[in-house]
Amino acid sequence: MQSDKHISKSFDQDLDEAIRLFLVMGDHAASQVAKAIHALIDKDDTLAQEVIEMDFDINRQEVELDEHILLLVAKRQPAASDLRLVMSISKGVVDLERIGDEAVKIAKMANKLAAQGKSAYGYAEVQHLSNQVRLMLHNALEAFSQSNAEQAFEVMRNDDVVNEEYQSAMRALMTYIMEDARHVSKVINIVWVLRALERIGDHAQNIAELVINYISGQDVRHSDYTLVEKAVQEANDRMAARHDGAMSENMSTTDAGLPDTD
Questions:
Q1: Neighbours of 69 (CB within 10 A)
Q2: Which residue has the higher pLDDT, 20 or 7?
């Protein structure tokens, strides 16, 4: 995460801690999703229960981060870009918590499917869609960590791919049902898993939109890609200006320390 340094070291420390807590929570949410999918594919009841219990940690982290942000705003009163970053973290926390909720839904479906016995219906579709969604989430969190608007935009574009994959998987499952109605209950559980994955993709997209917003200052929610591209360019320009400003400041500091040769 690239951020401007301030006169107040305490502010920088508080902001860095908020970023750290957000990324830790993001890692836990991503791990929860991965384990839920493995529990489903491997019919692992123990792992599914671990995913369900992990939700307590996700919820605790949400509360801890909310309290940290509240104190940061009250004590430091950040302005401009700093406030956008803080508010992006605050909004992103909600998406991470909901990703955890969707992982729990998948884990519960894993338990149901394991109890129903072996069935191959829908597992290939789940595996394929989960790979796409987990990559989206990984890239969204990395874009946040690196303040990378280009990568965030790529996550937004990938959501279209995920939606297409989701619709394709749903059509395949409906075909399974028509071919053999005996597997309706199992297929319906897989449908709920696919729906949960599609929602996780939506939350990853939300995080990507927040990245572009806090860097560019532009709200790109519900915007077409032409407007998003302009916001990404604005974000790149701002990051370049910050870099140039930091370089100039470093050069000035270095020059000030040089002995007078006249």
A1: 20
A2: 20
